[in-house]
Amino acid sequence: MKRNAWILPAMVVVEGIADEAIVNRLLAHIGLTDGWYRLWNTGGKTKILSKLQAYNLAARRQPWFVLLDLDSAACAPTWLSETLPVRSEGMCLRLAVRQVESWLLADKRGVSEYLGVPSDVIPERPDDCAHAKREMLALAARGKHRRCKEMIIKRQGAILEGPLYTFHIQQFATDHWDIDLASTRSESLSRALAALRRWVTLWHLETGV
User: Which has the closest alpha carbon to 132: 180, 81, 160, 97?
Assistant: First the structure.
């Protein structure tokens, strides 16, 4: 697309509240300030998927970044090619493997300090975790800090999400997360960063910023 032809601000779409903090950090990390994009929390993956074709159509003229969890799907590249086989120039669709918590767990040092758990109990390759959110909850259950008790509820032997889980995930992502370190242990995060840089360069430079 020609210089200055993109409709701005860019649109950024996420599943939930915790994702907002993670995406804001990622975009700031690659040099994009919040004045250049509008963040939209849809409240769930199903809602995003129901609108994905419309987002892709809009991305012919306006930059769109959509972040989803892979969840139980077998393969990220296969899912992407089947779900949106033809992507508009302005569409950046990325998957966190398997949940966005895996990107946080990839900062072993940060998670160790934040939760007060030994670093050797944190997965070395969190993209391989079947359920990264459950892994985060299990680590919080072992943690020494007061915040850990706020993150979980123990009920009939199960460890469930506590009332302040999302708050502490947001706080960690905003104030403690080492993205560069995390990207060395999460291939899906590393790929997402590379894709975001290409996406931003496409329209951020073309508009003369």
Answer: 97
> Does the predicted model carry a pTM greater than 0.90?
yes
Q: pLDDT per residue over 50-96, tens digit each?
A: 999 999 999 999 999 999 999 999 899 999 999 999 999 999 999 99
Q: Which CATH number fits domain 10-97+186-205: 3.30.360, 3.40.50, 3.30.420, 1.25.40?
A: 3.40.50
Backbone CA torsion sign across 148, 122, 72, 48: positive
- Contact at 8 Å (CB) between 23 and 30? no
**How far apart (Å, rounded) are the C-alpha atoms in residues 56 and 89?**
9
Closest CA to 96 of 64, 123, 69, 73: 69
